[in-house]
Amino acid sequence: MIYKETGQYKSSYKSDHAIFPLLQDKIAFSTLMFIAFLIIPFVINSYWEKAILVPFLIFSLAAIGLNILTGYCGQVSLGTGGFMAVGAFSTYKIMTYFPDMNIMIIILISGLITAAVGIIFGLPSLRIKGFYLAVATLASQFFLVWLFNKVPWFYNYSDTGQITVSERTMFGIPVTGAEAPSYATYLFCLVLVVVLSFAAKNLIRSKMGRSWMAIRDMDIAAEIIGVPPLKTKLSAFAISSFYIGVAGALYFAVFLGAIEVTESFDIMTISFPVLFMIIIGGLGSMLGSFLGAAFVVTLPIGLKFLMVDMVGLSAVTAKHFEITIWGLLMIVFLIVEPHGLARLWSIAKEKLRRWPFPY
Amino acid sequence: MYVDVLNIWATVIAVILVVSLALFSQYTKTGRALRAVADDHQAALSVGISLRSIWILVWAISGFIAMVAGIMWGTESGVQFSLSLIALKALPVLILGGFTSIPGAIIGGLLIGVGEKLAEIYIGGYFDTGALENWFAYVMALVFLLFRPQGLFGDKIIERV
After folding, report:
1. Prediction ipTM score
2. What number of other Cβ atoms are within 10 A of residue A344's Cβ?
3. Contact criterion met (CB < 8 Å) for A123 and B146
4. In Å, how far is A84's CA from the nearest CA of chain B?
5. Could you tell me the pTM of the whole model?
6. Does residue B57 register a pLDDT over 80?
7. If residue A259 lies in a helix (H) or strand (E), which one and from where to where?
8. Can you name the CATH fold of A47-354?
9. What is the DSSP annotation of A105-144?
10. pLDDT band at A1 (very low <50, low <70, confident <90, very high)
């Protein structure tokens, strides 16, 4: 009876439409926000920032983006790495052309540029779907990475082909570059993630989100009842790419600082892991994007701890085992729980609701 | 002109495999069952095809052919982890030719293989950057699908609600 909803009456439309309708959810969410905003910034150190928290925040943003496209609108995409690269490189170009612009505005503009690119690569989705579309989106992955690697204008004709971030401040505190303190980069990502996830959650509950889901469930039927496929699919591509672009911009500017496009935005380092995140976390679930990102970011660390520090394998062997375990986990997850971690959480809530009674 | 013995063998093996696969799927009872399952699982079940044995067979065949391709590619250019990325290029070939069609796979493979190299030479020269073959196959498949969503020889897509 921990998760008890009895006695919580909804007496207005407003409370009926609340994002967290139950008191328990409200308390849990407020506690989480309290810890995230007021406790973690004071105790964070460089290891937690670089290895866990900042990558988790950035990848949850990317996972939300892909989840909007794949989980809510049903358009499978393997081009995440390419779109993140667009976000990163537009941040870099805007930074060099407008040295005085605020970093927050730069990152949001990069998101908009990525959205425009996403619309272009989303055009095939009007004619093809499913597996065919997944292959077509591979084109964006390979083409964009090639473009940023081979056209010198994008990396300002530097000799190495690397792009490096310069220092930018928010309220006088550096958030990008090598001098940025851990709490500043963390808070910067956190604010963006919280604001953008609320925006996504509300978009999904709006008319737009409902038309995405209609297209996902059966596109012809949706078209017949008056959901315009062109507008719906392209808006899903645009908004998903916006989120992925912002994630890419943060990945470059705040997290890595210096990147080389073929390594950092490879299909094996970005596109497939982000797809794993939403499959493991749960397709079509906001919570799932976060759970999946947390899982994918912490699993290698946990496995490394287990295999290298506890068992004493060499780092290379452990790396190979890691790849194998990844594959195994994917298969097991798809067979045992196709709806992912988010579904496990809702089963747990059901159990908590009637605990200690069996039914 | 110097031709590697390995290349000749690879060609011979590929031709044998393709022909036997085409004959197998077209003329044998099992081959027909495979195509029936691809068409409609439930209908295939209802006429008495055992889905379980078909799955085992299908995965075994695909694994075997991938192994042959892997061995030949590995002897030619070495084995490393990125070999798995080369397999991705089989996807644009497949959708260009159209699923459910073995001639489609052959012609799609030729189109993409030759197109890639020609683009590298004729278009790549203008860009002064090269390495177009990283993405050319995918973009070609993408543009192609825009005009013919079912691929070259694929069955016509009919949708009902």
Report:
1. 0.78
2. 15
3. yes
4. 17
5. 0.87
6. yes
7. strand A258-259
8. ABC transporter involved in vitamin B12 uptake, BtuC (1.10.3470)
9. HHHHHHHHHHHHHHHHHHGGGGT--THHHHHHHHHHHHHH
10. low
